[in-house]
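Thought: the user wants the 3D structure for the chain below. I'll pass the sequence to the structure tool as-is, report back what it returns, then summarize two notable features.
Action: structure_tool
Action Input:
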Amino acid sequence: MKRTTGLNKTWLTAGTAAVVLLGGAGLYVLNSQPKPAPAEAVEDSHADDGAEATPEEGVVELSPAQIEAVGITVVAMSGGGGGEVRMSGRVEPMVDGRAAVAASVAGRVERVLVAPGQSVRVGQTLAILISGDAAALRADADAAQATAVAAQQAHRREEDLANQGVVARRDAEVAHAQALGAEAAARAARARSAAAGSPDAMGRLRVASPISGVVASVQVGPGGFAAQGGVIAEITNPARVEMVFNAPPAVAAHVRAGSAIRVTTPAGEVEAVVIGVATGGGVESATVIHARPTNGVLPPAGSAVTGTVLAGETVGGITAPSDAVQTVEGATVVFVRTATGFRAVPVLVGRQAAGRTEIVRGLTGAERIAGANAFLLKAELAKSDAEHGH
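Observation:
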């Protein structure tokens, strides 16, 4: 009877033991393994066949369930790369993730309703000011509204008299124009009052937060004076952060929005994508690269990070995740997915950058290969060779 190289029972049991701890799916994997045949049956089978067939070299047979159980990922190849460039950067709030809330008019601080570290929502009041300028704006708005109402009433009277033939139609038309002008002036006055924070008749107004987030600092106190345009408080949203890197000007020609970037943070590595590249006008100006994470969590704003991107001359080959490239008996191989498992294919590798390795020869680029945990396949091949050697 022909034997095929499959997972060593001891290795598979060890590889799936961790899955057992995760739930019923792991129990199914272990319980579904083939039961060892009785020794007598094995001996009879060997007696019938006369000799054991040599297993195909470099092949590891695995079912889809077994591949998932041991955590081997199957990935596709991708296009070539270039040189590796490392950049220093920091985690910073995004443009819409921070706000310096200022006083729209000068006034005295009556109350401060927040403290540093406190969470706030959009529209929540941060402080209350009393302002003479704000009171004047509110009075102007009220007066303009009253004038508009009087002009509308005058227009209606003139229309009635014109319809009765008491006054000329021209007088009604003039009254109509005056009413429209008064209404326009009232709208402008209301807009100025609203821009000041919609103060009440006493000039009391509320300074509200334009974003949700956390209060980073408070710049005023009760009884103090806030100048027009002076900062009342600073708000940041911890969830709206990005990474900003400074890079040599030459990088701008090779890095663009959508380019992949590997980032090292104090908490570990995360994958990210470039969302914008800003370059200065001069040759000596630095390139500023903005990126956001595609997986993982960024540290707080202000944390230092290091980014790695591909730059330089693009090669025409293909690349694979560096984890997929293994060394088996001195040969560099990649495990290609087959209908029954994986097959070790010798390859010639080139440059390495940003967690990927260039495949110069051995693959076409259309294959699907083992990525993460490919070393388990290498270990299985080594165990199979050792067993057959005995």
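Final Answer: Structure generated. The first strand starts at residue 59 and ends at 61. The CA atoms of residues 116 and 135 lie 30 Å apart.
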